[in-house]
Design a protein that fits this description.
Blueprint: E1 4-10, E2 12-14, E3 23-29, E4 36-43, E5 48-52, H1 67-79, E6 85-90, H2 101-116, H3 123-138, H4 146-151, E7 154-160, E8 163-168, E9 175-180, H5 187-192, H6 200-218, H7 222-228, H8 235-238, H9 245-254, E10 259-262, E11 269-273, H10 276-289, E12 297-303, E13 309-310
Parallel strand pairs: 5-6
Antiparallel strand pairs: 1-4, 1-13, 2-3, 3-7, 3-12, 4-6, 7-8, 9-11, 9-12, 10-11
Helix pairs in contact: 1-2, 1-3, 2-3, 6-7
Bound molecules: adenosine-5'-triphosphate and L-homoserine.
Amino acid sequence: MSKKIKVYAPASMANISVGFDILGAAISPISGKMLGDCITIESAEKFHLSNKGAFAKKLPKDPKLNIVYQCWQRFCQEMDKEMPVAMTLEKNMPIGSGLGSSACSVVGALVALNEYFDKPFNENQLLYMMGELEGRISGSVHYDNIAPCYLGGMQLIIDEVGIISQSIPHFDQWYWVMAYPGIKVSTAEARAILPAQYKKQDCVAHGRYVGGFVHACYTQQPQLAAAMLYDNIAEPYRKKFLPNFDATQQSVKQLGALASGISGSGPTIYVVTDDLVIAQQVELWLKAHYLQNDEGFTHICKIDPQGARVI
Ligand SMILES: Nc1ncnc2c1ncn2[C@@H]1O[C@H](COP(=O)(O)OP(=O)(O)OP(=O)(O)O)[C@@H](O)[C@H]1O
Ligand SMILES: N[C@@H](CCO)C(=O)O
């Protein structure tokens, strides 16, 4: 019987407002729906990549520009031989959504290749390759979508002494309402508009917010954690790309949200609450007011503890 591997790689929200490029979490809808890309690998005489799924038509026309093809190429380079396989990308994630769409494809492809070829690479070697591939797309290496998508949970990026990322505690009782408005924001462009330098008081405040949030996670103080979810690095510059961002934040706060912010580089936003009824009310409000077209969607999510997995 010929071998076949299918891997699911979940959506993720990078930054979580307070940790620009250094915090991220994998997410799963509580409905049980899969929010992520799938990659299938089967044996073949010659390399072949096919795309399917709701957002396949949005992928680059040239197959060599598909990041999945580049993952295969990079994997073969590392193995020092060409290994023909048939890969299928199920592109379920909208591109430029702030939900780690390219990370889903990169992580899915490299985990599937590693599984298919009986795990020639360890976790760190794969993470380095994933970071490199993600960096080709967004213009700089950042692991805050890659690491949670691969490893699950909420990840703090360390990138020192051989440690790329470690998971930190989160709040099991929190619901994360995610709303993708259906419009595209390019990560590379959303990075290019950020200032090259920040004022000293902004750096101090940022250290206080991220330190306070991580401390609150470890000591399980949800009110403190929610109060620390403040973004003074990217949000002030990026919010112009999101539809009525300030008014949206105000409205969800009035509905009882604990906090809200931009997921990754946007335009998806996240809203946190510990109450399912409030989550449902927020979701209805966002559906009615934040979505801009038929491609937009909302999901009530929890943090996905598992990350990428063979299904
Ligand atoms: N398999 C793939 N999945 C997603 N994007 C891909 C893929 N292959 C190539 N690309 C290209 O990579 C770029 C991805 O853009 P960008 O980084 O803004 O999206 P993203 O990963 O969805 O962002 P975000 O992390 O905010 O969700 C696009 O130009 C897209 O055409
Ligand atoms: N940390 C990255 C995530 C991109 O999805 C950014 O905000 O640019």
